[in-house]
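Hey L., structure's done. Input below.
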Amino acid sequence: LPTLDIWGPFAKSQIHQHIIRAEPLILVGGGSGIAYMLDVLSYLLHYHSSIRFKGPISMYFTTNSFDLLNWFTTILIKTKPLENDSKLLSINIALTSREITRSCIKSGPEFGRRSEIDLQLGRFNFANLFKQLQKLEHYKRCHVYCQGSTILQSDVKKHAKKNKFVYHESHSFNNPTTHV
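Output:
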């Protein structure tokens, strides 16, 4: 039977073009933005052998839901995304819930050994993150994609442009309380 590949909010061709040109990518997702990050990971896993993945790709996912964090990390552990290319793919997760403390996070032994996954409590500081990445030679022609709240997108866009990264717009939802 024929198969149909469907890729999410960012066109497969956009991501594919950056990857085959070995252009660095920063992907940021907040809350339901996890869907597009999983979509890109699925794409990379599916086409890994044919596209000569050269990276680097840095993924930053932020959520205030401990359940969503657990679900995402479980998928990462099971799929072992690009296990042999851990220097090319980094996955960073920020848990922003006020009710969760470090003692609540029970990382299994496998999660603790996966050096390409970094977990932190609290929000990402994109000003500092992008400033540090900009200093690295292989992030000079970096493309940034962000899927999440309007506030997250605005913050990422501001700091991406400040560090001379190429920011790609995505759809957003306006805060309904701001409409007249």
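Strands lie at 25-30, 57-63, 89-95, 117-121, 143-147, 166-168. Residues 34-51 form the longest helix (18 residues).

-- N.
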